[in-house]
Give the backbone structure.
Amino acid sequence: QQHLVSIRDWIRFGVSCFRGCDVHLGHGSDDPFAEATALVMQTLNLAWSADAEIIDAVVLPSERAAIAEVLKRRVNDRTPLAYLLNLAYFANLPFYVDERVLVPRSPIAELIESRFLPWLSVEPQRILDLCTGSGCIAIACAMEFPEAIVDGTDISIDALSVAALNVEHHELTERVGLIESDVFNKLPGQRYDLIVSNPPYVDAEDMADLPLEFTREPELGLASGVDGLDITKRILAEAADYLTDDGVLVVEVGNSQWALQQTFPDVPFVWVDFIRGGQGVFVLSAAE
Ligand code: GLN
């Protein structure tokens, strides 16, 4: 690596590390150039800039080992980019992340940005994010609905520690509460206008066959029993008791539309098609 002189050289080298290797992209970026650039620039403590003076600057010998190491952690060890950067974006907001939480990603971000229209007709006063992880959904909801009080729950104390950091970073300690709860069990008597969740929903077969990056994530955030529906079924069975009369439930699911409709024939599902690897979101109104 002695021939790698400038930042540009190292980014090119980084891109070449991804080539011909089965690295799973999509944990925060979707192309090798973006990943290599982010890793090189963060290691050098520089903001990304295409400015020639920056990009052609010489990388010091002492910095080379650090860049080589971070590229190795990404490409050989398959550590997700977001964990190496301690940063992921969700609904255009930055979040601190590490191995204690899933890397934020959910089509629910798009629903938040469109204020859950057309399903949510009134401004929600109280919002619940079940299985909040990094807190990204709870926080994005609090930003989109500045009048709302938001609760985020998780069974993982580790995840809640990360969520607490993010709530502080976004200066939302007044409006976003975090509760250690196994689904609804610590929320007796509470009612919410909007309940949102991206629960774990990977089935046992898929869990055995995950890309390596996913195996670096907490299993608690992904696995949900043999059919992947353990948590989703609990949410569906109990949600009506925690929704206000016009309340709406939005839950991300995998390819389980048919199984869920069979199990809950009375639930008025509205299936929202998101074309992203079979992921879907459904909305349920307790009013019906
Ligand atoms: N397939 C989803 C993903 O990794 C599973 C996430 C989840 O279980 N909530 O994006």
Summary: Residues 61-75 form the longest helix (15 residues).
